[in-house]
Amino acid sequence: MRVTVIGCGYLGATHAAGMAELGYEVLGLEVDPAKVDQLSAGRVPFYEPDLEELLSRHVTSGNLRFTTSFEEAGAFGDVHFLCVGTPQQAHGLGADLSQVEGAVVAIAPYLRGDALVVGKSTVPVGTAERLLAMLDEHKAEGATPRLAWNPEFLREGFAVKDTLAPDRLVFGVTEPSAEATLREVYAKVLADDTPCVVTDLPTAELVKVSANAFLATKISFINAIAEMCEATGADVWDLAEAIGHDARIGRKFLNAGIGFGGGCLPKDIRAFQHRAGELGVDHLTSLMREVDAINLHRRERVGQIAAEMLGELSGARVAVLGAAFKPDSDDVRDSPALAVAGTLHLAGADVSVYDPKANANAAKRFPTLTYEDSVLDACRDADLVLHLTEWPEFRSLTPGDLDGVVRRKQILDGRNLLDADAWRDGGWTFRSMGRR
Ligand SMILES: NC(=O)C1=CN([C@@H]2O[C@H](COP(=O)(O)OP(=O)(O)OC[C@H]3O[C@@H](n4cnc5c(N)ncnc54)[C@H](O)[C@@H]3O)[C@@H](O)[C@H]2O)C=CC1
Ligand SMILES: O=C(O)[C@H]1O[C@H](OP(=O)(O)OP(=O)(O)OC[C@H]2O[C@@H](n3ccc(=O)[nH]c3=O)[C@H](O)[C@@H]2O)[C@H](O)[C@@H](O)[C@@H]1O
Where does this protein hold substrate (predicted)? Predict the structure, then answer.
């Protein structure tokens, strides 16, 4: 069996390498020629632990190649994974489906026999059915392409592991032969007793957005509770530990702080809100709107606390530790850390940012901020240090590391992970986001 992967960004590049690791000959199809050049040289155009080693090994062995040609990809593959982007619309909350639709229309005429197109991109419910109709409209004479939906649940920072050993597989199919093909593709993963849910197309689409909506809701829930803690002097960390011991609740995704960001949760809850609105499911619309509002308020709250600590923002020197939306990633899409840095800069603060991996991406988005190459450089003469992305090198910082470097010993822990007592004992003013 030969596999193509259409769209080689974060998801597609990882999936292509994963499919090669499962033993298939893989052709990645990508419209950006610069990415094709990089990937073909065995280089990953973003930071993801372990991915470059995996990808370059399969490029070198010849199992994994990349192209910009739809014709070549159509002729090559028996199974075509659709991994193109579904960003938020430029002027609305809904998903921009132009990449998925464009890819399906472009590949359709080149598909051979009963090739299976497998959607992995995150899409609003009802999209797969429309894409099936588009495949049918644009297919070559005599071809009978099929479509299935196999949503992806990988996390950036753990993408390789999540691809090769996922928590579960979901197959949305319209007929048994598609399920059989997917079972064959994932035979090695299924052999590890990975749970597999086989269902219809709309359920598979909804599983994905529901999973992300649930995770986002869990984070916004604990962040709303963090505001109660701030108002009452209670401690949100102890509270999360206590409720997390209830197996029905669980401790994961109960870390309060500056809220969620990234290329997926924010745009997915907005697209879900939009789609629920279209379908008249008004309670879901309101729920998603509130989850988003709570999340965005956390970024404002950092600004408020910073202003309280500094007195005057204008002219103050602020060190921002972290720019990526989470550690072990250089992704700055909708990054809470960068949003906060940008807001403080606009309010007149002199902001220096340091991120171990994301400085370059951040500089493309916010070129007016100052970027430094180390914690110490970013913190030099700072009036306030903000810990906004929990990279291990920030979590292991001690007050002694920064004494004599900063101008005023003040730190705000936006991720609630630093040792408050150690910083206070070191003579620092220490604030967090709902911890004592
Ligand atoms: N990034 C992640 O961790 C995950 C992403 N997803 C979903 O996967 C999808 C892709 O996300 P990312 O990889 O983050 O986006 P991305 O923007 O990094 O990658 C999309 C890639 O598709 C390419 N592309 C656009 N139109 C194309 C076409 N017609 N033919 C071939 N290539 C084309 C783009 O140039 C880009 O390289 C989205 O729906 C996202 O919600 C799902 C799970 C995890
Ligand atoms: O659809 C997607 O693209 C992916 O979105 C998320 O994965 P990811 O965005 O890589 O990162 P997460 O680990 O979910 O973190 C998202 C954001 O939530 C924040 N977060 C997470 C957990 C928590 O307790 N608190 C919290 O603020 C993180 O800092 C980060 O900004 C999901 O976890 C994946 O299952 C999904 O496949």
Answer: 153-156, 208, 253-257, 261, 326
